[in-house]
Each structure stands twice: as structure tokens, then as C-alpha cells.
Design brief:
By secondary structure, the chain is of the alpha+beta class. It has 4 domains: about 60 residues, no CATH class; about 110 residues, Tetrahydropterin Synthase, Chain A (2-Layer Sandwich), CATH 3.30.479.30; about 50 residues; about 40 residues, no CATH class. Helices cover about 60% and strands about 20% of the residues. The protein has a 3-stranded antiparallel sheet with strand order 3-2-5, covered by helices on one side. Strands 6-7-8 form a 3-stranded antiparallel sheet, covered by helices on one side. β6 and β7 form a beta hairpin. The radius of gyration is 55 Å and the shape is rod-shaped. The protein starts with a helix and ends with a helix.
Length: about 290
């Protein structure tokens, strides 16, 4: 009988000790409840004690978790529709507030976070153009959204937003074709403007080249005529000087050159008066 009582007491001690002690891992955070009422809002990792059957411990994962927000349609600044698929990385930083706000349910926390992400995306995308959302300011949009969410989620839900990212941005099926057609039209218009601008520049360049070529030809002709005139003047001066030194010899030389050029072809026939001045030096030479 005594042995039976001893075994029962030992078993009772083990059960009481087992329900009095609990361990919180490094990857966990916990709260303690007393008859369903929160009495300790943040239990650090380690070995702890509680009152059996009076206190209840709720443990939560303190590691970074991922919440995939459902795809939603948003309008850009120019009222163009986009379908955005996003996700967020978050973790619990205030265990008591997390338990009060969500009842300790990560599913509830994820739903609340997804709604806030969608609201934030609606505001951020609505203030930007399509080009800015898709490429130009995509990183700035994510940083701004993360900062805006962190201003309220810690106090309201007890969580911290590590990062928010957009996985995919698509045009809705009902507007995709019209948007592509409009983009093609805009690109063709830009290409035509560039061609027109280039043609205008080409015309200006050709006109300037033609003008410069005309100026160069005119200046070259002017210089050539000036040089030719100077040469003729010099030649005339030389002839005049030579003529003044011996007019008779100069006249004789010119007559001889004329005879040579005139009678160079034996087939030529000239009808001239033998007594003309043209044969003066021939007559004088024959008489001499």
C-alpha cells in the first residue's frame, strides 16, 4: 500500500513538474495566458515556469515568414489597368499585440497584411505612370510601400515588414491588345518624328555644303581670273619692253612665226596680193 502511494505521489510530482516547466526556443516567442487573459506578453527564449492548469503558454514562430498577396488590378496615373502579383516578408516583433490583434493566428495576420499591401500598392501605383511602375521607379515604389506599412503594422498587428516585392506585373487580357497597338502607334510616331528631324538636318547640311561649294568655286574663279590677268599684264609688259628695244626685229620675228604657222600645211591655198605688207619681209629677203 505504501509503495502504491509513493508511486502515485512520484507520478503526480512528475506530471506537475511537466506542466509547470516549459522551454521557449531561439526561433520562438510566446505569451502566457491565465484563464484566457494575457498576463505576460513577451516570453524570452529559455526555460520558464508556470502554474499548471492555470496558465497557458502560446508559442509563435519568430522567424521571417512570407505572405503572398492575391493578384489585384490597379490603375496607374494615366488610368491604365495593371494586374500586380506581390508578396511580403515579415516577422513578429510584438508578441502581445500580435496575439491581441490576430488571436495568435498567422493566417489572420497574413490576411490583414495582404489587405494593407493591396491598399498601399493602389496608392503607390495610382501616383505613377505605367513606365515608372514597370521600370523607372519600381524599386522606389517598393521601398516607399515598405516604409508606409511599417508605420502602422508594428502598432496595430505587432509585426515588422522586412520587404515587399512585386513578382509580376501584367496588362489585363481585355486591354492588352489595345495597349500594344497604342504602343506600336506611339513608337511609329516617334520614329517618324526622328526621321523628319533627321531629314531636316540633312537638308540643312546639304544646303550649307552647296552654298560653301558655290562660294569656293566663285573664289577660285576670281583668284584664277586675277592670276590670269596678272599673267597677261606681265606678258604684255614683256612684249612691250621687247618691242621698244628693237621694233624692227620684233616685227620681223612675228612675221616669221606667222609665215611658219600659215604655210605649215602644203595643201593650204591662199589668195593674197603679192604686193601686200604681209609679204614685206619675203620681198626684202629676195631682193637682198
Amino acid at each position: 500500500m505504501k509503495n502504491f502511494i509513493a508511486v502515485g505521489l512520484l507520478f503526480l510530482i512528475i506530471v506537475v513538474a511537466g506542466n509547470s516547466l516549459f522551454v521557449i526556443k531561439e526561433t520562438e516567442r510566446a505569451v502566457m495566458l491565465q484563464f484566457g487573459e494575457l498576463v505576460q506578453d513577451d516570453i524570452e527564449p529559455g526555460l520558464h515556469a508556470k502554474i499548471p492548469w492555470v496558465n497557458t503558454v502560446r508559442k509563435f514562430d519568430a522567424r521571417i515568414m512570407t505572405e503572398d498577396a492575391p493578384r489585384r488590378r490597379f490603375l496607374t496615373l494615366e488610368q491604365k489597368a495593371l494586374e500586380v502579383d506581390s508578396y511580403a516578408k515579415w516577422r513578429i516583433i510584438d508578441v502581445g499585440q500580435f496575439y491581441v490583434s490576430t488571436g495568435g493566428s498567422t493566417t489572420t495576420a497574413g490576411s490583414l497584411l495582404a489587405e494593407r499591401i493591396n491598399d498601399g500598392l493602389r496608392d503607390q501605383i495610382g501616383n505613377r505612370t505605367l513606365a515608372e511602375v514597370v521600370a523607372g521607379e519600381r524599386d522606389q515604389l517598393m521601398l516607399a510601400l515598405t516604409a508606409d506599412l511599417n508605420e502602422t503594422t508594428a502598432a496595430d498587428i505587432g509585426i515588422e515588414i522586412i520587404d515587399v516585392r512585386v513578382k509580376r506585373i501584367d496588362l489585363p487580357e481585355d486591354v492588352r491588345s489595345s495597349v500594344y497597338d497604342r504602343m506600336i502607334t506611339e513608337r511609329n510616331r516617334e520614329a517618324q518624328e526622328l526621321r523628319s528631324f533627321g531629314e531636316e538636318l540633312a537638308i540643312g547640311i546639304r544646303a550649307d555644303a552647296d552654298r560653301q561649294a558655290t562660294i569656293f568655286r566663285a573664289e577660285a574663279y576670281r583668284d584664277a581670273e586675277q592670276i590670269r590677268g596678272e599673267g597677261d599684264a606681265t606678258a604684255t609688259g614683256i612684249y612691250a619692253t621687247a618691242y621698244n628695244k628693237d621694233p624692227e626685229f620684233f616685227a620681223f620675228t612675228r612675221s616669221m612665226n606667222s609665215y611658219r604657222e600659215t604655210f605649215s600645211s602644203k595643201g593650204d591655198v591662199l589668195l593674197l596680193d603679192p604686193d601686200s605688207d604681209y609679204f614685206k619681209y619675203l620681198k626684202n629677203g629676195a631682193s637682198q
